## 1
Amino acid sequence: MRKNIVAGNWKMNKNLQEGVALATALNEALKDKKVNCDVIIGTPFIHLASVVNVVDKNKIGVAAQNCADKVSGAYTGEVSAEMVASTGAGYVILGHSERRAYYHETAEILKEKVLLALANGLTPIFCIGEVLAEREANKHFDVVKSQIETSLFDLTAEDFGKIVLAYEPVWAIGTGKTATAAQAQEMHAFIRRTLAAKYGQEVADNTSILYGGSANASNAKELFSNPDVDGGLIGGASLGVDKFMPIIEAF
Ligand code: 13P
């Protein structure tokens, strides 16, 4: 059955020392705790190797926030999936709306990134979600379906089974305006139906679908209590142990 997951996305926050300190503190907070979800932290590239070194890998998974769409070579400034995997990180966040909007990552580019992540043994946490205008035009289901189809539906069922999805309505990210539990459940159930139609009910039932967008200690319990919401991808509230732990403990 699918896993419950609480994943932090630090985005471009924390220098190396601050990041290592946060990971160390989270590791400490989880040390003697039994929690009912997998915990992942998504750090900037340069933090990965150091963070992997200070966390108990049985308690905390480590994710990159991106990887290149090329294997290797003359791509100045890029970081390959193989490099990410070589740090000991096990996950990579792909298709975040900030990457799509600010760095023009297209469905085709993301398709390549997903394949390279999988080829290097990384679990992609693949983000999808509509902007406000699309929701207001009642196009949010079509948009999300198309994001999934165009980047992921060429995968075999076996490979698709390795993907974690994160529904992040863009209008909820960093705005303090969370989707209601009902809006999240409605979309997550739609996503699961979409997966079932393509890969069958078993694959759909085994796929973890996380919610992201202004999730925090006060709304996590309600969001996570929905049958199709399997956890959260947490931005701002993952930047401090005091804010992140209660979300982990919401399960
Ligand atoms: P916030 O939790 O800060 O809204 O960010 C959500 C997000 O984009 C996680 O990837």
Note: The chain has one domain: 5-248.
## 2
Amino acid sequence: MASEGTISTTVRVRFAPSPTGYLHIGGARTALYDWLYARHCGGVFVLRIEDTDRKRYVPDSVQDIMDGLRWLGLAWDEGPDVGGPYGPYVQSERLELYQEWAHWLVAQGHAYKCFCTPEELDQMRREQQARGEPPRYDRRCRRLSPAEVARREAEGRPYVIRFKSPLEGQVVAQDLLRGEVVVAAHTLDDFVLLKSDGFPTYHLAVVVDDHHMRITHVLRGEEWIPSLPRHKLLYDAFGWPMPVHCHLPVILDPSGKGKMSKRRAAQSGLPILVRDFREQGYLPEAIVNWLARIGWTPPDEAEVFTLEEAVRHFDIKDINPKPAAAPYSKLEWLNGVYIRALPTEELLERLIPFLSHDLGIPAQTLRQDERLRRLLPAVQERIKRLTEATALLDFLYAESLTYDPEMLIAKKLSATETLAALRAAREIIATVPFEAEALEQALRDKAAAMGLKAGQMFSPIRVAISGKKVTPPLFDMILALGRETTLRRLDEAIARLERLIATTPV
Ligand code: GLU
């Protein structure tokens, strides 16, 4: 079998997740850098599913990864569902290719069949441990005679194919950001290429696929650096040119002390999976902006930039190889910036799934609700995440409000004084022309006449119509609710306050 030609001149970058769990920020950042670099170069972005580890396979994770990437705006040019010239793009559908190349390596003398059973390997490991040696395959099958190999095969004994790592010297591989990665060859064991069930290991599959898919640049997480020398050995054995390899720094938790892991995220209540960010009301635009900035700084050092701007400026040589902490508080801020930049109609569309879910109201009903539209600009100013809108808007849809009547009582006023203020407010709202300025002026005048501060008049009204102290602007709420509902809620509040006064011992 001949090699498949040389590396193409079009930049081809792949994101190669294993479907062993849902898409998390580390994977999303890798995918983003892959995507940015491909787009920056006018190249091709490939999605490949590396599902050869059947034990760790999580069935719905492929869908989750694809949904997450698309939601973030990182669409691929070639991949499992869209196809492409070098497919299939799912490793479990490419087993024959790996098997062929594994056997080719055996035929060329670069690999050998190993018949050791799990029990034998276990025994070997225990003996090595007892001698204080690092556990490593002792290469016993590397020394089998061709006749012995043939005999065992004829008996139908299962085998794996192992790579013949060099016994001495150094293996030198290149990382774009770090330069040479050098290891002593003897520290690399004769790693498995093909398992006895015919599945390849990661090392074989990744090299065969990166070559056959004409990948020019491998951008992947730093945790794969230890694999790089093995991949170098494989490329050399195959006689294939090695793509540029660039290992991306890990993302640390906000304290900068350790890798951002699921466990740390769970402990701190921070989102880590892309689906968590989505559920918690973050916008994809904000997330990609934030992720791009963990490890890369645009030339003008801007904090806020569009994906298009990032595409224009992104270059892998500018990636900072130092691990960086994930600044979650910055994400919160950025998300607010992006929310405020949305056209109101667009904000409404983004809010609808959350509101519909939280309030149990069909999307179409919400879409047609003029009262909701009226309040949107105020909501837009106040929220940092989409999830926060419900608390500002649910008063519109409540049949009756539940709140502690004590909340009605204005600062530095007694319950009786508050009651007087609420009764006066009710009178004004029932009679003054129902528009913001007229209502506000009349209420302010009345407050002054009663010797009250405007806030002492407004705050009981606020609680009466919303059941809350933190709300959109008062007059926006009153107008959105309409006169009738506003008056009804004021009446209820007055009644509650009267009961409170009646039952409070003097
Ligand atoms: N399949 C590996 C993972 O899930 C990616 C390794 C690579 O990009 O070479 O992390």
Note: DSSP finds 20 helices and eleven strands in the chain.
